[in-house]
Amino acid sequence: ANNQPKLSAFFTLK
Amino acid sequence: MLELRLVQGSLLKKVLEAIKDLVNDANFDCSSSGFSLQAMDSSHVALVALLLRAEGFEHYRCDRNTSMGMNLGNMSKMLKCAGNDDIITIKGDDGSDTVTFMFESPTQDKIADFEMKLMDIDSEHLGIPEAEYQAIVTMPSSEFARICKDLASIGDTVVISVTKEGVKFSTRGDIGTANIVLRQNTTVDKPEDATVIEMNEPVSLTFALRYMNSFTKATSLSNTVKISLSSELPVVVEYKIAEMGYVRFYLAPKIEE
C-alpha cells in the first residue's frame, strides 16, 4: 500500500 | 466558561457516529464563531473537518477560545445515553479537565448530567486552502453509500471518473469488475434526489474504499453529499448539517502503480 500518499503531501502543517 | 445548548441533540449524536471510527482522539475547538474539529485518522491519509456554527445553537456562550481534547469513543458512549429527542448542552469551565454533557428530555421531566474526562492531545492542524475543483458531483447521500458498499464487496479501491457523460464509479477485484455510471438527473420530484455534475474538465482518481465507506457513516446527517474532485488534491466528501455547518472528509488519492 505504498501507493497511498499521506495528506501532508498536499496540505501544509499549520 | 463554555455553554452550548443544542435543541436538536440528535445532530451531535449523529456527528459522533459519523466520525468516531475514523478518528480516535480529537481536539474540539470552541470560539465565538462555532464549535469545530479537525482531525486526521491514525495513518494521516484521511481527515475530518466539522463545523457547527454558533448561530445553530439555541444558546451559545464561549468566553474565550478553548480546545478540548476528547476520546471520541468515550464521547460517543456518553452521547448514546441521550435520547434522540433530547436537548444536549455541552458545558466546560476554564482550566477544567472535564466536560459535562447535559441531556434534557423534550418535556423537561428527565435531566441527566454526564461528566467526561478531557485529555491532552498533540494534534497536527493542516492548512486547507480554498481550491478550484475540476468536478463537483452532488448526489443523494444514500445512493453514494449504496455504491461504496456494493463496490467494496468486489474490490478495495474505487476509481471515480467524471466526464460529460456522467460520473463513473469503478472497481476491480479477484472475482471481477464493476462499473456504476450515474448521469446528471435534475428532473426529480425532490431536489435532494437530484444528481448534479458540475465539470470544468474531466477527472479520474482512485481512492481506498475502506475510507469512503467510513465517510458514509455520515449519511444520516444529510440527504445529499457533495464530492469535489481534482487531480493533485485530496477528494472532499461533504455532508451539510442543516442550518448549522458541515462534516467534510478529505482523502488523498492513490497513485496509480
Can you walk through the features of this model?
The complex is a heterodimer of chains A (14) and B (257). Chain A has no helices and one strand. By secondary structure, chain A is mainly β. By secondary structure, chain B is mainly beta. Chain B has four helices and 19 strands. The A-B interface holds A 3-14 and B 40, 43-47, 124-129, 208, 232-234, 250, 252-257. β1 of chain A pairs antiparallel with β10 of chain B.
Relative strand content of chain A: 5-15%
Query: Uncertain segments of chain A of ≥5 residues (pLDDT<50)?
Result: none
| Classification by helices and strands of chain A | mainly beta
Quaternary assembly: heterodimer
Number of strands of chain B: 19
Q: Which value, in Å, is the CA radius of gyration of chain B?
A: 19 Å
Distance between the termini of chain B: 52 Å
Globular, elongated, flat, extended or rod-shaped: what is the shape of chain A?
A: rod-shaped
Number of strands of chain A: 1
The proportion of strand residues of chain B reads over 45%
Helix and strand succession of chain B? Answer: EHEEEEEHEEEEEHEEEEEHEEE
Features of the shown structure:
heterodimer; A: 14 residues; mainly beta; 14% strand; rod-shaped; B: 257 residues; 9-stranded antiparallel β-sheet; 5-stranded antiparallel β-sheet; 4 helices; globular
